[in-house]
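To: structure subgroup
Subject: Chain for Friday's discussion

All,

I'm putting the inputs and outputs inline so they're searchable in the archive.
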Amino acid sequence: MREFEVRQVEDHVIHVVGDLDVLTSPRLRAAITDLVVDGGGDVVVDMSEVSFMDSSAIHVLLNAAWSLGDRRTLVIRHPSQQVARVLEVTGLTPRPDQLPMAIDWGDRPMRDGPGAVHRLVAATNASLDASRRSAALTRDAEALVRAARAVRAVARANRTARGRSPAAA
């Protein structure tokens, strides 16, 4: 077992080493809280050297993600195999529309098994959600164009009714 360590390595980046459990999660919470309070960019947690993670650590990560609000994201960088498995099993592979959290898998290839399927489904869902949002924006833009045309037509009719020609206005 490695000795637990959490340290800030860059602006808004912390590196975690060792077991994340009920005894060490408060130290992770404190480190993340310091970065959240500082403001600025996304908060990145490098978990490449985490050897164990329990539900108390998941609780810390979820609370941190929600506390960042809409403008910032919690990024889990290079999760170790143990962390990746916990994230996959718990269904925390993030979807941007539901949780302000992202996972930077690094260069690790998508491996076989339920975790790979889960990530593929999550990526597909994220793509579908983006397509739906794009379609909704297109519908909204078309509605605005129709409204602008209607306003223009009313303005022309008002000018004509007052005795001015539309071309003179």
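Points worth raising on Friday:
The CA atoms of residues 22 and 56 lie 5 Å apart.
The beta strands are 5-10, 13-20, 43-53, 74-77, 101-104.

D.
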